[in-house]
Here is the input.
Amino acid sequence: MAATGEPSSSKQKSKYETWKELSVTDRLDRVGNSIQKVKDQPYALDSYTYEPKFGKGDPVAVCCQGYYYHAVVVNVEDEPYECPDLEKKVPLYRVKYPGWTSKDGNGEELIVEYDLIGTTKHTVAHELLYAHYWNKAKLSKEKKLKKAQQKSIFELPVRTLQKLETKWQQQIQQENPDQTVTFAQWVGVDNQQ
Here is the structure.
């Protein structure tokens, strides 16, 4: 057989081997983009109807100023967000970051529903894991948070982290029975737990 310059199937790298060559930042960026695309899909459906998923007092996680923080929904706004890309109305929430004041910059802000991560309802394991490990990776490089921000930085408790990792692994193994990689390993922060 003539050489084609392409590796034979026995020499081809697995997707995971190729993925491992990416930096943690690149992996997290790609995972984050994929998660956001999945989160946006229901709003693009013709069958989508405006109905807020969260209510006053619901705890959520929100990305603000490059980090994920714990926040609490303080109001479901009467006026929804008119999404220009979707040409649809999407629920809009006012959230409060516990411990923050107006001098901390964003004590409260408006957030569109598809940018919220449910922490007690409408939870999705990989979204919570992503937010947790995003912060771990960023905080390992930059540690310039104000005191109030440090108080509300999103971090999963150890038991919850272990449960979510197990749930994620089970989902992965349904698709790939021989795969045993954790989410932390997948994004390259397994030594930063």
User: Anything to note?
Assistant: Residues 24-44 form the longest helix (21 residues). The beta strands are 59-64, 67-76, 81-83, 88-90, 92-96, 108-112, 116-118. The chain has one domain: 23-42+50-187. Confidence is low (pLDDT under 50) at residues 1-10.
